[in-house]
Design a protein that fits this description.
Layout lengths: L1 H10 L7 H8 L3 H13 L3 E5 L3 E6 L6 H5 L11 E7 L2 H10 L7 E7 L18 E7 L8 H20 L3 E4 L3 E4 L2 E13 L2 E11 L19 H5 L5 H22 L2 H9 L7 E5 L4 E9 L5 E5 L2 E5 L3 E4 L1
Parallel strand pairs: 3-4
Antiparallel strand pairs: 1-2, 4-5, 5-9, 6-7, 7-8, 8-9, 10-11, 10-14, 11-12, 12-13
GO biological process, one term: regulation of DNA-templated transcription
Family: Belongs to the biotin--protein ligase family.
Organism: Calderihabitans maritimus
């Protein structure tokens, strides 16, 4: 009901609408209307209230509230259900707990801040308050376990396309899932999954996108490698609009994946990549390999011509030489 109140206020943005009219249109008492207005004000919506004129929405807060993200969202699955936190340990951890309890596909856990944001290979992911896009998407693809890595690559293509179309920046993908702009990382993706025998039960795709971070928000030791859209564009961006765009891109690609498999996504990934044709070093848990990155396989592995012969990698850290 709070969302319905907001919807009407949004429609009349900048003009007053009376408590009486709101209560009649929504079929609730004026006291109930007033309570919803109070809650919205506490959440950061600037709503002016005047005795005889009613209520006027003047400003929406710069938070990734479900009500904001859903208004004008074109998807039918991704982001239709959103769980928002001002502060959480890790959105991936929460999404996995929800998935365990049977939460439906397309549900997104999103946070303004993570206190224990996790990166790949056990690293920490800096996630300061109100500045980035820290979210996790629950998927339930009906595929075999070995098709799961391709979902990470799908996510990377979705983010790169969203950045390109929303910000006009050339975003490139470093295998498997780092998004770079002008050689610096703006986004990382952490995919986690649960499989039962050989079939995937759920996949959680965690996306960390440095939207409005400023230089001082990054720890000093990563400032030469990481950047944000705000730094690149020299202006703050609308996180809400970018997330909506991302959900749209993600859903289109996911539908394509479900209908035609990984092959069309693989072609897109190859067009947007910055790894193939380069000399790379791959650090796996046990060894280090050097060679020329030549291709990605039908299931998303990186093919490298090394001194020891052709190798296919599904994990590890790749550095461009
Ligand atoms: C990487 O190492 O590049 C992957 C970073 C992934 C970070 C995101 S932020 C949202 C989600 N929750 C986490 O704890 N990690 C992922």
């Amino acid at each position: 009901m709070k969302e319905a109140v907001l919807e009407i206020l949004r429609h009349h943005r900048g003009t007053f609408i009376s408590g009486q009219e709101l209560s009649e249109r929504l079929g609730i008492t004026r006291t109930a209307v007033w309570k919803h207005i109070k809650t919205l004000q506490q959440e950061g919506y600037r709503i002016e209230a005047q005795p005889r004129r009613g209520y006027c929405l003047q400003e929406v807060p710069d938070f990734l509230y479900p009500e904001e993200l859903r208004a004008g969202l074109s998807t039918s699955c991704i982001g239709r259900n959103i769980v928002h936190y001002h502060e959480v340990g890790s959105t991936n951890t929460v999404a996995k707990q929800l998935a365990e309890r049977g939460e439906r596909e397309g549900t997104v856990v999103i946070a303004e801040k993570q206190t224990e944001g996790r990166g790949r290979l056990g690293r920490r992911w800096e996630s300061p308050y109100g500045k980035g896009i820290w979210l996790s998407i629950i998927l339930r693809p009906r595929v075999a376990t070995d098709a799961a890595p391709s979902i990470t690559l799908l996510a990377a293509v979705a983010v790169a396309k969203a950045i390109k179309n929303f910000c006009g920046l050339e975003a490139l993908i470093k295998w498997p899932n780092d998004i770079l702009v002008r050689g610096k990382k703006v986004c990382g993706i952490l995919t986690e999954m649960k499989a039962d025998m050989d079939v995937v039960e759920y996949v959680v795709v965690g996306i960390g996108l440095n939207a409005n971070l400023e230089v001082q928000d990054f720890p000093e030791e990563i400032r030469d490698k990481a950047t944000s859209l705000r730094i690149l564009l020299n202006k703050k961006i609308s996180r809400v609009n970018l997330v909506r765009k991302l959900f749209g891109e993600f859903e289109s690609l996911y539908n394509l994946f479900r209908e035609h498999g990984f092959s069309p996504i693989r072609s897109m990934w190859k067009e947007m990549n910055t790894t193939l044709g380069q000399q790379v070093q791959v650090n796996t848990l046990t060894s280090v390999y050097s060679g020329l990155a030549v291709d990605i396989t039908e299931d998303g592995g990186l093919v490298v011509e090394t001194k020891e012969g052709t190798k296919v990698f599904y994990g590890g850290e790749v550095s461009l030489r």
